[in-house]
Fold:
Amino acid sequence: MVAYAQNPTQSRPYQLPVAASGLPAGLVVLNKVPSVPVTVIGTADNLAHFQLASLHVMGNFSTVKVGTNKVPIDVQNADPNITVVAPSSVTVSVDDLGSSTQTVSIERVNTLAQGFHEQTTATTITPSTVRVDGPKSQLSGIQAVVIVDLANVTAPGSTAPVTVQILNANKKVVPQMTATPAQVSVKMVIQADAVTLNKPVGFTLTGQPAAGYRVTNVQIAPLEVQATGLQNTLAGLLLISTDPVDINGQKSDVIRTVTIRPPDGVTVNQKTATVHVFISATPGVSPSPGP
Structure:
């Protein structure tokens, strides 16, 4: 009695994972195999030296079918000084392993730096589709997405591998789904935002009036157009040019409709302008005779 009082029999409860073996091809266990309650019994001295690593729970899945199954388990005990009490089976749900092809979409989070935008027509995903494998009953309504944090994307853009996530209709990650390939390449083109400013329209004259005549005035309409482009480009644009007007040998006013020629990367709200060149005889000079 004294010895027993000094070294009594005790017990300790544990929850141990089940290692699955023998699962037939084409089947998959839904969710995780639940852990099983295990009670370890031994003397106080034996339990003081007990190592949990000496226990392994094995589940024999060789006879499972689609639906709910009771899988027999075996607790392997490498410590001869303790006794183990455990259930004889664990309940699991099994499903067929299915697959589907999904088009990959981008889920954007956060925003780009102010003054920049994504040129969405140039955004590409390579490859554009992935094969998704997982429980057949959970394939309906899934979507393959890559999450891109726009706060980390700067101009002129990026091309980077991104891990594919499988989400359900509620945007929650679906467990036990795998994508092949696991990553896709996402290319984004980032541009500075365009601005619109009023810019003056210029004119160019070529040639000289006939002898004894001179240009007394030039008018152009419109005087300004709305120019749209990158802010840095427009800041250095003092004047928008037009096609030249030839006044060579002219003795009277010349009125021409000319094309407005903005530089590359700039668009204007009007395509043409009217140039009126006023030509008159030079005072005190005899005009040249007509032909």
